[in-house]
Design a protein that fits this description.
Blueprint: E1 7-9, E2 30-32, E3 54-56, E4 77-79, E5 100-102, E6 124-126, E7 149-151, E8 172-174, E9 196-198, E10 219-221, E11 242-244, E12 266-268
Parallel strand pairs: 1-2, 2-3, 3-4, 4-5, 5-6, 6-7, 7-8, 8-9, 9-10, 10-11, 11-12
Keywords: Repeat
Pfam family, one: LRR_14
Protein name: Disease resistance R13L4/SHOC-2-like LRR domain-containing protein
Length: about 290
C-alpha cells in the first residue's frame, strides 16, 4: 500500500477509462484527473481518502460523483469544469472544509442544491457557462456568511430574480452573459461587502434603488445590457471607482450627481446614446 503518496496527477491521460480504485492511496492530498476524457466514473473508494484536499475531474466524462465523496472531510477544492456531471453530490453541506467549487462549462448542470450554503468555509462558487436556471431562496439560518465570489457568467438559462440575502459576505458577483436575466432583487442592497458587480450582456433594464446601499462597491459593469439609467442617488456611493457601460443603447443622460463620487477614476460610456454631459459646479470637478 502506497501510504505516503501525497499527489497523484494523471492529467491528460486520454485513454484512462477504468474506474480508479483508490483504496491503495490513503494518504493522498491531491488527485488530479483533468483531461482524462474517457474516464466515466470514480470508485466509491474515493470516500476513504480522508486527507484529500483537492479533487480535479475537469474535462472528463464523469456523469456523477459517488455519494461517498461527502466523507472527504478535508476536501477544500473541487474542480469539475467542462465535465459531464449533472449535479453536485447530495449532502454536500456536510463537507465543512470545502472552500472552492469550480464548475465552468458543465452543460448538464441545471440545479444548485439548497444545502450548498450549509458549507461554512465556502469562499468561491464558479458555475459559469452552465444551465443553472435559478439560485434558490434560502432560509436565513443557512446563510453562507463566508462566500466571497459568486460567478454565474454565461448561465444563459438563468432567468429568475436572484435572491441574494443568503450571501451577505459576497465581494464579487458576476452575472455577465446571463442573457435571460431581466431583474435583480432588492436584496442586493444587503451585500455590504460587495466590491464588484458585473451584469454586462444581460437583459436587466433597471438596477434596484437599493444598490446605493452598497457602500463598498468599487466596480460596476453594465456593458451591453438593457439598463436605461444609472441609479438615483449614485453620488452616495463613496468608494465607487469604475463604471463601465459600453454599448448600453438606452441611457441618454448622465446623472449630475455622478461627480459627487469622490473615488471615481474610470467612466466608460462608449457606444451609448448619451446626448450631453451635464454642466457641473466647479466645486465638484474631479
Amino acid at each position: 500500500v502506497a501510504t505516503r503518496l501525497k499527489v497523484l496527477d494523471l492529467s491528460g491521460c486520454e485513454t484512462l477509462k477504468e474506474t480508479l480504485e483508490l483504496s491503495a492511496f490513503l494518504s493522498l492530498e491531491k488527485l488530479i484527473l483533468n483531461g482524462c476524457y474517457m474516464l466515466t466514473k470514480l470508485s466509491d473508494s474515493i470516500g476513504m481518502l480522508k486527507y484529500l484536499a483537492e479533487l480535479d475531474v475537469s474535462h472528463t466524462s464523469i456523469v456523477e460523483l459517488p455519494n461517498s465523496i461527502v466523507n472527504l472531510k478535508n476536501l477544500k477544492v473541487l474542480k469539475i469544469d467542462y465535465s459531464c456531471i449533472q449535479k453536485l453530490p447530495d449532502a454536500i453541506g456536510t463537507m465543512e472544509k470545502l472552500e472552492e467549487i469550480y464548475g465552468a462549462g458543465c452543460q448538464q448542470l441545471k440545479v444548485i442544491l439548497s444545502d450548498i450554503v450549509e458549507l461554512p468555509s465556502l469562499r468561491i462558487l464558479k458555475l459559469t457557462e452552465t444551465r443553472v436556471e435559478n439560485v434558490p431562496k434560502l432560509p436565513e439560518s443557512l446563510v453562507a456568511t463566508r462566500l466571497k465570489v459568486l460567478d454565474l457568467s454565461c448561465c444563459e438559462m438563468l432567468k429568475e430574480t436572484l435572491e441574494l440575502s443568503a450571501f451577505l459576505s459576497l465581494e464579487k458577483l458576476i452575472l455577465k452573459g446571463c442573457k435571460m436575466l431581466t431583474k435583480l432583487s432588492d436584496s442586493i442592497g444587503m451585500l455590504k461587502y460587495l466590491a464588484e458587480l458585473d451584469v454586462s450582456h444581460t437583459s436587466i433594464v433597471e438596477l434596484p434603488n437599493s444598490i446605493v446601499n452598497l457602500k463598498s462597491l468599487k466596480v460596476l459593469k453594465i456593458d451591453h445590457s438593457c439598463i436605461q439609467k444609472l441609479p438615483d442617488a449614485i453620488g452616495m456611493m463613496e468608494k465607487f471607482e469604475e463604471i463601465h457601460g459600453v454599448g448600453c443603447l438606452q441611457p441618454e443622460v448622465i446623472p449630475s450627481d455622478i461627480v459627487e463620487l469622490p473615488s471615481l477614476r474610470i467612466l466608460k460610456l462608449t457606444k451609448t446614446r448619451v446626448e450631453n454631459v451635464s454642466k457641473l459646479p466647479k466645486s465638484l470637478i474631479s
